[in-house]
Write a structure and sequence with these properties.
The protein is of the alpha/beta class. Helices cover 28% and strands 14% of the residues.
């Protein structure tokens, strides 16, 4: 059996979709490859039955740096993120293969599924409260994904008493605190977040790790897309995508893929890749395409989900 070490140094959301490539490879060729991975998020691969430990210095192992260049065609062809890594891996290996699943594949042990989640631990009596997860923050390298904090707070306020919101976010990233939520910002490991989403009712936020986790566990997710990315590229079943592609000149024919709203003056080259229509004067500057998405739209969709 051929040994493969698949490498990728990208963010957790990217690594989540990388699981699709591994799932597809082992489904198409169950007796041809042994696969190990090298990524910044080992928790994503825990309990994955397709992973076999392979030493870094194993001379028989082929080491592959996974990419998804098909993103460059996403505005012209019906290509999804789900198939990005898979298409690249198939081309690299010279085999015929497409994604066998429309969502990331994560694995919890039977024991993990029984562990009390962090929301249950939050209540001193250990009650099991239904909850939704909200990610109101972004990394500074892609502030163009920001939705107004005021809008997030409005959604929380208008669903109070019906939805228990849990705010998550990695420490070191830009996650302003919301009022009226259970605050778990900076308080979850990757594995804890995976389990937190598994037990949740759904999620709200931009294109981010939370979106991919909700897709993995087939949870509803309200995805705040705006006009930055191509709609087909980021779509998942059971998710609701709020976009403005086609409504502004900058995203008339597809996502603009801009990085930041305004300059941060931190020496990063992304300061030269700015939104064409920034909206300032809010708690944080946002792109016009994101400001156009109104809380009422989110509330309406939440009402439909809660009534189903």
């Amino acid at each position: 059996m051929q040994k493969l070490i698949l490498k990728c140094g990208l963010s957790p959301g990217d690594i989540a979709t990388m699981t699709i490539a591994v799932e597809s490879l082992m489904t198409y060729f169950p007796n041809k490859y042994l696969v190990d991975v090298r990524t910044p998020c080992p928790d994503i691969w825990e309990n994955n039955p397709h992973i076999t430990p392979i030493a870094d210095d194993d001379k028989d192992a082929c080491q592959i740096n996974l990419q998804y260049p098909s993103i460059n065609e996403s505005g012209q062809r019906p290509i999804t993120f789900c198939n990005g890594f898979t298409r690249f891996l198939a081309a690299y290996l010279g085999v015929s293969m497409e994604a066998v699943t429309n969502r990331p594949r994560l694995y919890l042990s039977d024991e993990e599924k029984t562990w009390a989640n962090q929301v249950r631990q939050y209540f001193t009596d250990g009650r099991d409260v239904p909850y939704w997860i909200i990610n109101a923050g972004v990394k500074n390298d892609f502030t163009a994904k920001q939705w107004p904090i005021e809008h997030y707070q409005d959604v929380v306020n208008r669903t109070r008493g019906r939805i228990q919101w849990v705010q998550i976010g990695e420490s070191g990233h830009n996650h302003p605190k919301l009022e009226g939520v259970i605050d778990l910002r900076g308080k979850t490991t990757t594995r804890e977040l995976i389990r937190l989403v598994y037990h949740s009712q759904g999620g709200l936020g931009p294109v981010t790790f939370l979106q991919h986790l909700c897709a993995a566990w087939e949870k509803p997710y309200l995805c705040l897309l705006g006009g930055r990315e191509d709609v087909f590229w980021v779509s998942y079943p059971r998710q609701h995508t709020f976009h403005t592609v086609g409504l502004l000149d900058c995203c008339r024919h597809g996502g603009c893929w801009k990085s930041r709203v305004v300059k941060l003056n931190d020496g990063d080259s992304k300061d030269d890749d700015l939104c064409q229509f920034p909206v300032v004067g809010l708690q944080r500057s946002v792109s016009k395409c994101m400001a156009m998405i109104q809380p009422a739209e989110i509330i309406c969709t939440l009402e439909r989900i809660l009534a189903s």
